[in-house]
Amino acid sequence: MPGVPPTRFVFLGPEGTFAEQALRTIPAAEHGTRTPARSVPEALDAVRAGDADAALVPLENSIGGQVGVTLDELADGEPLVITREVVLPVQFVLGARTAVPLGEIRSIAAHPQAHAQCRHWLRAHVPAATVVDALSNAAAAAAAAAGEYDAAICAPLGAGRARLTVLAKDIADHADAVTRFALVSRPGPPPAPTGDDLTTLAVYIAHDRVGALLAVLTELAVRGVNLTRIESRPTGERLGRYVFFLDCSGHVAEVRMGEALQGLRRVCADVRFLGSYPRAGTERPAPAPPGTADADFADAAAWLARIRAGGPA
Amino acid sequence: MPGVPPTRFVFLGPEGTFAEQALRTIPAAEHGTRTPARSVPEALDAVRAGDADAALVPLENSIGGQVGVTLDELADGEPLVITREVVLPVQFVLGARTAVPLGEIRSIAAHPQAHAQCRHWLRAHVPAATVVDALSNAAAAAAAAAGEYDAAICAPLGAGRARLTVLAKDIADHADAVTRFALVSRPGPPPAPTGDDLTTLAVYIAHDRVGALLAVLTELAVRGVNLTRIESRPTGERLGRYVFFLDCSGHVAEVRMGEALQGLRRVCADVRFLGSYPRAGTERPAPAPPGTADADFADAAAWLARIRAGGPA
Amino acid sequence: MPGVPPTRFVFLGPEGTFAEQALRTIPAAEHGTRTPARSVPEALDAVRAGDADAALVPLENSIGGQVGVTLDELADGEPLVITREVVLPVQFVLGARTAVPLGEIRSIAAHPQAHAQCRHWLRAHVPAATVVDALSNAAAAAAAAAGEYDAAICAPLGAGRARLTVLAKDIADHADAVTRFALVSRPGPPPAPTGDDLTTLAVYIAHDRVGALLAVLTELAVRGVNLTRIESRPTGERLGRYVFFLDCSGHVAEVRMGEALQGLRRVCADVRFLGSYPRAGTERPAPAPPGTADADFADAAAWLARIRAGGPA
Amino acid sequence: MPGVPPTRFVFLGPEGTFAEQALRTIPAAEHGTRTPARSVPEALDAVRAGDADAALVPLENSIGGQVGVTLDELADGEPLVITREVVLPVQFVLGARTAVPLGEIRSIAAHPQAHAQCRHWLRAHVPAATVVDALSNAAAAAAAAAGEYDAAICAPLGAGRARLTVLAKDIADHADAVTRFALVSRPGPPPAPTGDDLTTLAVYIAHDRVGALLAVLTELAVRGVNLTRIESRPTGERLGRYVFFLDCSGHVAEVRMGEALQGLRRVCADVRFLGSYPRAGTERPAPAPPGTADADFADAAAWLARIRAGGPA
User: Fold this and answer.
1) Which SUPFAM superfamilies does this UniProt record tie to the protein (chains A, B, C, D) (predicted)?
2) Does pLDDT of D79 surpass 50?
3) What is the mean pLDDT of each run of 10 residues along chain B (313 residues)?
């Protein structure tokens, strides 16, 4: 219900993974219920069915890339909108039941993606250890806690939850790796503009002809709307149909974004609005180009009205 | 005064030239007063001063090209708007006092542009005749009527007015040459859209940098507004400033044209609206691209309103 | 070594997964060695080190989306090129040790992505069964073969290798889901053009300013080069730098592609060529626009040469 | 003959007009023959027929605008190329047989365009004088010299040639008005690049559809070629065909211009090269955008060659 903050949260589980850690950065979630889901579709279906108010699911992460299942679920079925993004630094720790020296570690449980992200660190610091696949970071921590392996790669939250001793922190090879999550709700009025917002769209084009995507980008560029992310995915429904997932700088309440959205609506096979929400992080976006502020649009509208009335321009 | 049809007309003189002939194709002008002006500035100033309701002046002709003085006068000074265009076939006749055989003609009076347009015909049919410059087509006819020369090249109207016998018709080398005139008034509500209209603009850009004109055309193209004429002229005012005269398919009352005009207003140094008026001639324009009809804009606006309200899209 | 077909292949393991199945569609791989790697980086490093001639790794799949680790590994480090793509239908089967009726199945092992792709089928046909996560499709099959679970979701190849009885075929919810793999080698002359090829690029732009991506696409569109896939990824190296992964229709040996690549090289911060190779599948691409065939470029080059020499154009 | 400087010049007459004045700014013309022609077609035909080496004709002037007859003659018939432009300030003087006070002048002979350009000056300084049309500036001067009128508006050269006393200098209303002339020859190697050159083109497009001109400009912009002038003219030949006259910054010998020309050749119905020649005047053009210098093209070509050979990029 618009205006009523969400209290029942669902997140991509299991507990102790990055999704829970991300959810807990949201104040309202600290005071609400937090239920793990086994999959992204399960989490989103809980929101669609009204069993939860909001779901926290991954959109993309630095190693695995886009999370296709989230994009597809947002593009299909009952409409949902993103109301918030959470960007979480990917911080891996090496945890063990006790404070053993690194040189004595022979086996390490790790989710394959976590393993991939810490490859160089592992080679340098525990070259002799065998890394064994686990189903999730939380499962890896649990296996180490159960004594199945000497240590585990996991999230800081997961290490604490499994009562592991942290042998090493920040072991990911890329210090600035992040995972980006979306808080997703049923449609409702978007959060108020903050001056630094993102708008996410799913745009369908009918053919992969030369220039179809160019036309989409031109609709944005001509209104000064910047693009911060783009992903194409073939749609299963029909041969030769593509869907593009776009993150644009700006808010649906701004005139330039509104005109751009209308342009896409007019020229594309379909457009699905997936939400306007504050940009996470502290990096300032590029300023909008001259002539694209709301005041510029208002001036132009007033001028047009004068012309149409036959008055002095 | 809006709604009151003009009754006092001024045209680029002298009498008997193509401008008068063009003016007389307008029914209201048949019943009003028709006063020749000595120059385009004089004609337009009469309208600006309220001494005339409308002025008929040339915009471009097939041989001389754009009529720079008309463009400059429309772009500068008190605003004026075009309410009608008249496209007149350039039909030259060879006239003489009496019905002499072509072979006996030794001297022909002609305005230099008329001479240029009939060059091939003259070489083929009166190769021995000397062509002597005259100040206008009407002056050439008058000189032939006065017996100063054996014949004159002039407009059909001019031949009749000077009581010349037409020795040969349609002597212009290009059968489809035309002159395009504009009927110009003080600002007022434009004529109602007919479904096949033109809109004329003067667009100023600040620099001749790569892409400045491209940006102008993109503002039009992205709304499906077609361009039928473009002329660039350097402006005297300031170094490096350019003005482009554009004729676009469509009417200022149409949504796509309105949005395009607002776009130009926002991104260009200046835009002057020079009128929306019915296209002359019978050739149908290219249809507007899909998604650019008023109904498409209305659908897109309704969709945006739903999105902004948080309702189902 | 150019000209010598690869004989030592590595693939993303373990054995029995789709990657091995994809590799075995390549004739040369049937006669060469096929070694599983534990991760995409491990597979590619084997090629870089000369321990293998080619690696088969996933690029994207219908459910998981882009395989970020593959893209990142191709964009970074020692250059590698794609020489072939393999598009494999995602065909899941439900296998069990013996031919039990579906109604008796209580537990099913499945990789989470496989689970997600078969959700609707599972709900309809084995609603009472509990689905338990496995680390890979092959691991799920092995667990069912070992009697740990009543059944497993796996690839057809994996079912056969684990000697499972197939209880149901084609159980994926989307019949046309596919996974796309790349065969990757050290740089060498690309395979000869076939008339239906793809070229893969990693393009870096310096800023996320409005129009930067538009400029990239314009370089392609103006030469008639079509885009079939685009993915953006932030680069870790430097703030505000983006890399776009592009799949373009055409071959580096074609003039239009060559000119487009040079254009990108000139205007982008960096471009990495990731290979030209035959397009998989039977769907014909959109034909190149008029004026972009090699013959058109040859004609234009000859014309330019004549102009420069001052001869007749 | 290439390499041999022209010695036989023809110019748009009569003698004593701006065209002759413009021609005499060219050193070679000072030592060659200078023959007046009665019209632009006559001047150009003299070059085509080999009766002259070069013709000086007007391209555009500040008041009259484009000189359509020159453009049409260059676009049609036997090819000709511009080898030099001359930009002449429009300097009008008021001349009389003797040094009479302005207050005593009752009649002034003037070419209508000259009259239009000096309107404000005349109104302010000789308000009581009647201005009478003359066929050219030279004819006006001659009439004043013959005593037919009290004074004449003419070019400084024309005043001197008619032995008139200059009563007032610089009487044009716009101090920076200019006329632009072209020196036109039969095709031959263009003058060497100077670093600040113009290239003139006539570009034909088949339809006036939305985006046709946009496509032309994109071919230029994507190679960093700037546009300093554009004029559209309908072609008589075929309905719906347009020809655009373009002046572009750069020389046909430059790589970026060459690639742009080839692009136009490929995508337009027709392109006629009308010459590369040094820009007149002292105003520096906007620098070419990054990545479009000859060295950038050479770097990109070398990179492409390495890629195609399969070597390290």
Assistant:
1) ACT-like, Periplasmic binding protein-like II
2) yes
3) 75 83 92 90 94 93 70 88 91 94 95 84 92 86 95 92 94 81 95 94 76 87 88 61 86 96 93 95 74 93 93 72
Q: Which single residue is written with the structure tokens 């799920």?
A: C140
Name the residue among C110, C20, C5, C111 with its Cα closest to residue C57. Answer: C20
Average pLDDT over residues C271-300: 87
Put simply, whether A78 touches B (Cβ < 8 Å) is no
pLDDT at residue B3, as a whole number: 54
Is the CB of B292 inside 8 Å of chain A's CB atoms? yes
Highest CATH level, class, for C1-90+179-185: alpha beta
Of A64, A214, A286, the CB nearest to C68: A64
Q: Please determine, looking at this structure, whether the domain spanning B93-168 carries the CATH number 3.40.190.10.
A: yes
Helix, strand, coil percentages for chain B (3-state, nearest 5): 30, 30, 40
- Select the residue of C65, C176, C210 nearest A233 (Cβ to Cβ): C65
Which residues, in sequence order, are CB contacts of C195 under 8 Å at separation 6+?
Answer: none
Q: How confident is the model at residue D2 (pLDDT cuts 50, 70, 90)?
A: very low
- CATH, range D1-90+177-187: 3.40.190.10
Round to whole Å and give the CA distance between D170 and C180: 76
> What pLDDT, on a 0 to 100 scale, did the predictor assign at position B113?
78
Query: What sign for the dihedral angle of Cα D119, D123, D124, D128?
Result: positive
Architecture of domain B1-90+177-186: 3-Layer(aba) Sandwich (3.40)
Cα separation of D222 and B210, whole Å? 9
> Pairing between strand C33-37 and C8-12?
parallel
Helix (H, G, I), strand (E, B), or coil: what is residue A272?
A: strand
CATH number for the domain formed by residue range(s) A1-89: 3.40.190.10
Instruction: Quote the CA–CA distance of B28 and C6 in Å, as a whole number.
Output: 86
Nearest to C143 by CA among C97, C92, C104: C97
Measured from the Cβ of residue D270, the count of other Cβ atoms closer than 10 Å reads 15
Residue of chain B nearest A1, judged by CA positions: B310
D134: phi then psi, degrees, rounded to nearest 5: -130, 160
What pairs with residue B112 in β-bridges?
none
**What digits encode the pLDDT tens for the residues D211-228?**
788 889 999 999 999 888
Domain D93-165 has CATH 3.40.190.10: yes
Contact status of A235 with chain C (Cβ, < 8 Å): no
State percent of chain A over pLDDT 90: 58
Q: Do domains B1-90+177-186 and B93-168 have the same CATH topology?
A: yes
ipTM: 0.85
Subunit contact A311:B222, Cβ cutoff 8 A: no
Q: Which of C305, C303, C24 is nearest to C155 (CA)?
A: C24
pTM: 0.86
Quick one: DSSP state of residue B27? H
Q: Give the pLDDT confidence of A229-253 residue by residue, as tens digits.
A: 888 776 655 445 678 899 999 999 9
What pLDDT was estimated at residue C1? 45
Q: Which single residue is written with the structure tokens 């945006």?
A: B304
> C8-12 and C54-61 as β-strands: parallel, antiparallel, unpaired?
parallel
Domain spans, chain C: 1-90+179-185, 93-168, 190-313
Segment C299-308, tens digit of pLDDT: 999 999 999 9
Question: For the segment C92-128, what is each residue's pLDDT rounded down to a tens digit?
Answer: 999 999 999 999 999 999 987 788 788 889 989 999 8
Cα first-last separation, chain D: 46
Sign of CA dihedral A246, A252, A256, A259: positive
Q: Which CATH superfamily is domain C190-313 in?
A: ACT domain (3.30.70.260)
Residue count of chain B: 313
Helix axes C68-75, C40-48, angle to 10 degrees: 30
